[in-house]
Amino acid sequence: MPSSLTASEQRIVDAVDRDGLVSAARRLVRIQSDGGRESEAQVAVAELMEELGLEVDRWEIDLREVERHEAASWEIDRGHALGVVGTLPGHSPGGRSLVLNGHVDVVPAGDPLTWSHPPYAGVVEDGRLYGRGSLDMKGPLMAGLFALHAIRRAGIELAGHALLQSVVGEEDGGIGTLASILRGHAGDAAIVLEPTRMVVAPVQSGCINVRVVVPGRAAHGAIRTEGVSALEKLHVIHRAVIALEEARNEPYRGEPLYRPYPTPFPICLGTVHGGSWASSVPDRVSVEGRVGVLPGETMTAARAAFEHAVAEASANDDFLRDHPPVIEWWGGRFYPVDTPVDAEVVTTVATALQDVTGENPPYEGVPFGADAGLFAHVAQIPAVLFGAGDIRRAHGPNEYIDIDELVDMSRVLAVAVARFCGTR
Predict the structure, then answer these.
(1) Given 9, 57, 105, 355, which residue is catalytic?
(2) Where are the beta strands (DSSP E) in 126-279?
């Protein structure tokens, strides 16, 4: 290991339990936690925290109360949800506290026949852990847990508290992280354990969900030209949306923070529904998608830009001019994050990464929404994203994470926690 690590930091790095980390990650992957069914996974995380010596707060989230908060958003109607936060306590009055944040909810696995291994088997093969959630983000969550365990195992006492938030509902808007913050589980800064390819990410795109209902005029398919196809009018709107996406992203292309992503703030229309009969001209088509929110941009401004583009396209169309589409903003939304690269939590993670691995990667932004925005906008503390794995492997079949990278992530986090919180 590089000599820039102190003797106590070297003990912490050496104390990361590789086998325990892999075993815990496999245990979580084997629990199916999609569609709002997160409680079994949360119970398992709480048990692991207790086994490893953390002080654990496990509570029933008052969903109705949290949903009344102005920052609340969700797409899954849950009847039950658990909050879980483990704390490695600090021992010096006034010591700085650091939050590690990860989620147990996952997106559906889809057709299991498209997977090389069963999506919830937690198979380890060729140095990789396969399964839904292995990357996004049960593996990284366990890296955070075993980072705190390594500090304790090495006999190091922190000056300030280190907290590990295990949350629900990240994939559909962040209700679990919001609940943890409102319960008082916040600190002086936060590290969100999303997969960033082990790159330090101080900038995160925001996003908001949108639904556009495009009208038409029904007619028998045999005389289709006497009707107006909503599907054809959707093309008018889609062209305008693509042009808007190009205009919003052009100023950011070529900037170092966004170099890996040619479109860092995408607008994706992901579902299409319409028509009622194969031989009828469709009189209604609706699309749902997500609109990327720029760093420093308000949700209101992002909505206004989208609405203006749709209105302008409609005004230039003979039919849509008098029958404008209806725009609805619904479901999950994620605030953008633009933490200064010289913020202490950012530089602490970066120097820990360099000292533990010998790597000195550039800072990068990420194009996906995550819970870091809730720390910036609700808790009002600086947040950075850092984690093993590439987001390109998430939300699809054969999701996996490299075990060596996951272990390195845990080591980096352990050193970063010790440096930020201070030691006695």
Answers:
(1) 105
(2) 128-130, 162-167, 189-192, 203-204, 206-215, 267-274
